[in-house]
Amino acid sequence: QTNQPHTNQTLYRATFMHTPASPFETPDALQVQEDGGLLVAGGVIQASGPFSELRAGHPGAEVSDLRGGLLLPGFIDTHVHYPQGRVIGGLGMPLLEWLDRNALPEEVRLADPDYARAVAQEFTRSLLQNGTTTALVFGSHFAPAVDTLFAEAERSGLRAVAGLVVSDRLLRPELHTTPQRAYEESRALIERWHGVGRQLYAVTPRFSLSASEGMLDACAALMREFQGLRFTSHINENVAEIGVVQGLFPQARDYLDTYERAGLVTRRSVLAHNVHPNDRELGAMAAHGCSAAHCPCSNSALGSGFFPLKRHLQAGVHVSLGTDVGGGTGFSMLKEGLQAYFMQQLQGEQGVSLTPAHLLYLATHAGAQALNLAHLTGDFSVGKFFDAVLIDPAPQTALRAVYAAADSPARLLAATFASGTPGDVARVWAGGDTAYQARRDLAAIHP
Ligand code: GUN
Ligand code: ZN
């Protein structure tokens, strides 16, 4: 149930973990509370600490006992495509061929409002089932489909930061628009949804390959005219793509410059992928405070390459995590964290050795930071919304056995990233309301 006023206090009793600071900057960033308490009222965290202390201090609060599981902040997916849920698994193609053959034909189907509604419902459900409570969503090229996305997100509890995807070349005619029309349709959606409930608007040219200078200027006009908009697009994903962009923008110094010249690289910008940046681009991203959304499953599936995390960190570029469905392989931020870990391990000296604390940070607080939402979500600090996911493996599963045997909370977190799946997500809260609850009434049968 969403949108119900909370008059009562609820005291959640659970082992919880969160990263109020960045483990890339602070050694002891992972905070662990065994048998902890989180006091929630009005959807907002009022107090946190050991359960016994909170119980004594708030005897009137209703206790919700979540022991046996692991309570984490709701995940924040900073790059995921709404129209691509049904084309997950188009493997074996590099980016441009994959767009042509796999993604774009499906994206055309969202011109049909009924089709778009069904896809929007599947999409919001899939995110919540995986524990994602905030997402920076690449919308559709069709304004009615984006309107439907916002409506479904608001109904479900999902905080969507999303917008109309705009392009005026090199995709296919059904997906093209003009800068003028893009501006007008975007403006109408901004006026209808930006700041409504949990929803925010992100100006979204698909990528420089499909957006003329005129289109990028229309995007910049929107960013100037409305307060608090976010900006997102793709950058430096694939070597062939970068070559085409260079040819289309002969005056630009590099891929970033195509956005930078239009004034689109700011603290409010999140650029997805950045697998092949040069040093100038990294320096400029850091100087502008723009974030990179790392999508390791997609980078693997499309063979885009190894994300240079160490170079991003050395340059001071903020990095968050995204699933990039459907270039990515699913909606699980646990899987995304594990794949990020794998790909850093495989880079040897060039890689960053990621701990479970890093993975949790990348899947939660780092995303809030990238979206300028860290005052509202991303960890369990007092004053933030209770956006949370309870990992509680079902009986007789492999992860349940690990949970039962784990001798330290750090071990729990590591095992959760190593082998957690959506099946282990027991319950999800968005702004204090239950947005998803797993059915656990079907007992497994083992002869
Ligand atoms: N670049 C432009 N469009 C897309 C897309 O849909 N997916 C990915 N991974 N990269 C893109
Ligand atoms: Zn993408």
Offer a few descriptive terms.
globular, alpha/beta, disordered N terminus, binds zinc ion, seven-stranded mixed sheet, 447 residues, Urease, subunit C, domain 1, nine-stranded parallel sheet, TIM Barrel, binds guanine, 16 helices, 2 domains
What does the radius of gyration come to?
21 Å
Give the DSSP E fraction (strand runs of 2 or more residues).
Answer: 15-25%
Poorly predicted segments: 1-6
The first-level CATH class name of the largest domain = Alpha Beta
CATH architecture of the largest domain: Alpha-Beta Barrel
Family: Belongs to the metallo-dependent hydrolases superfamily. ATZ/TRZ family.
Pfam family, one: HUTI_composite_bact
Catalytic activity: guanine + H2O + H(+) = xanthine + NH4(+)
Pathway: Purine metabolism; guanine degradation; xanthine from guanine: step 1/1
